[in-house]
Every structure is written in C-alpha cells, then in structure tokens.
Amino acid sequence: MAASADTITDDGNHTVELTLLDNEESAANGGSAAASSEEITPLLTQIERPKINIFSVSRSRRKPRELVIKAPETEISPVSQFMLWAWSGSRYSGLLCMALSSVIYFVMEVLSENFTAQSIPLFETAFVRCTVTLILSYIWLRRIGLPIFGATHPRKLLLLRSLVGYLSLLSFIYCIQRIPFSLAILLSFTTPIMASIMARIFLHEKLKITEIGGLACSFSGMLFIFQQMLTTQGGLQKTEEANNSSFGGSNHIYAALIGFFSSITGGISYCLIKAAAKATDQPVVTVLSFAILASPAAGICTFAFEEFVLPSFNSLSLMLALGILSFLAEVFLAHGLQLEKINKAANVMFMEAALSQLWGIGTSSIAPSLGRLVGCILILISVSFTMFFGPEKENE
Q1: How far apart are CA 323 and CA 327, in angstroms?
Q2: DSSP per-residue letters across 82-104
Q3: Do residue 109 and residue 191 come from a single domain?
Q4: Same domain assignment for residues 191 and 313
Q5: What is the rounded radius of gyration, in angstroms, for the C-alpha atoms of the chain?
Q6: Claim to verify: residue 251 and residue 328 sit in the same structural domain
Q7: Over the stretch 49-96, which tens digit does the pLDDT of each residue have?
Q8: Does residue 365 contact residue 123 with C-beta atoms inside 8 Å?
Q9: In a domain, 352, yes or no
Q10: Quick one: 20 and 131 in the same domain?
Q11: I need a labelling partner for 213 at 20 to 30 A (CA). Which of 76, 230, 315, 323 fits?
Q12: Cβ contacts of residue 269 below 8 Å, gap of 6+?
C-alpha cells in the first residue's frame, strides 16, 4: 500500500495531517508497528481472559466451601453422629433417648448375669451406683459451667423428685427380697402404666386411644413372657408353700403391695423428672439431685439392714462399670422424659424386657416357648409403632 498524505486546514489556524503506511513500510520501520501490535495484543487477551477467569474463580470458590463443610463430617465417627442426633432435640430425640436408656439397662442386666463373681447385698450395690452417679453428675455440670443445684425456683421439684425416687427404690429392694424374682420384675414393669396415669393427673397430658392401646399391647406381651415363669419357675409354687406356713402368704401379699407401691411412686417420680428437667433445662440436674439423697441413704441402709461384704477386685470393677452405665441410662431417661410425652416415652421402656428375653433365647440360657416369642413380638410391634408413628407432631 503506497504512502499517502492528506492535509486538512481549518481557517488557516489548525492543520491536521493523516498518514497511512502499507505493511512493508510498517515492517521496515518496525518500531511503531511492533509497539502498536504489542499494545493491541495484550488488550485483546485481557478482554478474553477475564471471561475465562471469572468462571474459573467462581468454581474455585465453591470447592473450598465444600471442603470446609465435609471435613468435620469425616472426623466424626458414625456412633458420635448418631448420639449427637439423638440428643439434639429433633422430632425423634425423646423416643431415641428412651430407647438408648432401655438398651443400656439391658446391657447392665447382661453384664450382671454373666460376670458376677460374688454375691453383693442390694443396698451395697445401690450405694456404689448412686455414688458413681453423684460423682459423674457433679463432673458433668462443672464441665459445662452450670450451677450444681440449678435455679432457685425448681429446687422444690428436685427435692420431691429425690424423695419420691428413693422411696420407690427402697420399696423395690424390699419387694425383690421377699417375693419371687419374676413377680417382682412384672410388678416393676407396671411403672410405665402408672407413669402415664400420673402424667394425666398431674401434668394433664392427654391419653389417645392409640397410646392406650400401645401400653396395653406391651403389657400383654409382658404377661405372655412371665406367665410360664410364674407357673413353672416356682412363683406360684413358692406362694403355695408360703401359704402352708403361719404368715408366709400374708408376707407375700404385703411384699407384692409394696412392689405395687414402688410402681406408683416410680410413676410419680417420672412426672417430677419431666417437670424438673423442663424447669432447669438440664436433665443431669435431676440425676444429681437424686444421687445426693440416694447415695448417703443407701450407705446408711447398707450398714443398718444388711451385712457389709468387702467386694473383690473383679466385683468392684463390675460394680463401677455398672455405675457408669446406670448414670448414662438415667441421663438418657431424664432427657427423653424432658422432650417427649410420658405415655409415649413409657411405652418404649418395655423394649428392655423383649431384648432380655431374646438374648436369653439366643444364648440358650432361657428355653424358647411360644408364649415368650408372642410376648416379644407384641412388645416390639408396640414399640415400633410408637417410634415411627408417635412423634408426628411437635414435642409438647
């Protein structure tokens, strides 16, 4: 392209000159053309690169966020995740806490049956468990920075819970020492029914037909389970033999009435646990209040009514382990009662009896029978119905 020059003059005052060069001249001159190309090329690349960098930056911003969220999940074990979910106060937390409490009580029963090395009096066993519960409750509340005795206004509830709870424990120990074991256990499992009745009276909780049917189904399963035990394991035979003595039959009747009284006070105690846990907003406070009274009282009863037995190392280790499990079971029980209606939570407690029977049948320590299997099936159906269909509405 040839060089050309045009000159434009405006009234003789300003002159504008336009010069065009062809490619050869621009390559020969090199300086200005290279400079202009160098100036133009970065401008074009800068216009294109931001379009790519914008999307690349947006993608890189999402990845760190996902890593931040997923990293803690990989560090927490599935068991810890389940425990946190069960404790978190979700819709199923109350029933799950009751189920965990029943499972822990079942584990305690298995340990006490399989690893007992020597016979320890009941009051001495209760003293060790209550003492371990007292220490662990105190440490728990200190670690989370809460006052030991809670707020001022619910202290009457905590005192009543301690008195009624220990009265129920004292009555049950007296009952289990004087009537057949199977009958005493059957009487103790009337506590969930008494708790539902007392919740209707004191807490004004409504009892639905489905909830009444669930409790009736579970207790019917208990009757199926213990029917054969009462008739063949010596329950009724011992009662008949006791009737032949002068006051044996009346002693059994009095002991059974005291066992029934233990169930009534146990039901009232559950209502007080729920009320106190809601008032203090901390279920461990109710556990501590009971242990403060029960530990010294059980120690006094140990030396007053029974002969103290020095436990061996294995027996003491087992008692301490059972004390730790008892503390966990009571904490889950108090938290479950705090979150859920008592009649629903009480029905889940029957799960312990079904698990105990199934374990005995599986380990051949209990002879399988149709009655036991029917009873276990009734309890599991009732508990499953409560677990899956119970928490449809918000927790009250």
Answers
A1: 6
A2: HHHHHHTT-TTHHHHHHHHHHHH
A3: yes
A4: yes
A5: 38
A6: yes
A7: 444 443 344 344 444 444 444 444 446 777 777 777 778 767 888 999
A8: no
A9: yes
A10: no
A11: 230
A12: 161, 164, 165, 168
Dump pLDDT digits (tens) for 237-268: 444 444 443 334 567 788 999 999 999 999 99
Structure token pair of residue 15: 């002159």
Distance CA 280, CA 52 (A): 58
In sequence order, the 6+-apart residues with CB closer than 8 A to the CB of 389 are 210
Instruction: Find the mean pLDDT for residues 206-232.
Output: 86
How many angstroms separate the most distant Cα atoms in the chain?
147
62 contacts: CB under 8 Å, gap ≥ 6: none
Contact 259, 178 (CB under 8 A): no
389 pLDDT tier (thresholds 50, 70, 90): confident
Q: Give the angle subtended at the CA of 163 by the CAs of 303 and 168, to the nearest 5°.
A: 75
Last residue of a domain, one of 45, 74, 103: 74
Question: Do 329 and 279 sit in the same domain of this protein?
Answer: yes
* pLDDT confidence band for 229 (50 / 70 / 90): low
Domain count along the chain: 2
Domain shared by 45 and 135, yes or no = no
Q: How far apart are CA 184 and CA 199, in angstroms?
A: 23
| pLDDT (tens digit per residue) in 268-317 | 999 999 999 888 888 999 999 999 999 999 999 999 988 889 999 999 99
Asked if the structure places residue 81 within a domain, the reply is no
171 and 65 in a single domain? The answer is no
| 79 lies in some domain | no
> What is the pLDDT, as a whole number, of residue 75?
66
Query: Tokens 């003789």, residue?
Result: 12
Residue 314: domain span? 95-392
Q: State the pTM of this model.
A: 0.75
**Nearest-angstrom CA–CA distance, 100 and 349:** 10
Check whether residue 242 and residue 380 sit in a common domain.
yes
- Determine the pLDDT at residue 55: 39
Distance between CA atoms of residues 24 and 282, nearest Å: 90
CA distance 390 to 384: 9
Is the CB of residue 202 less than 8 Å from the CB of residue 271?
Answer: yes
**Pairwise CA distance, residues 277 & 97, whole Å:** 14
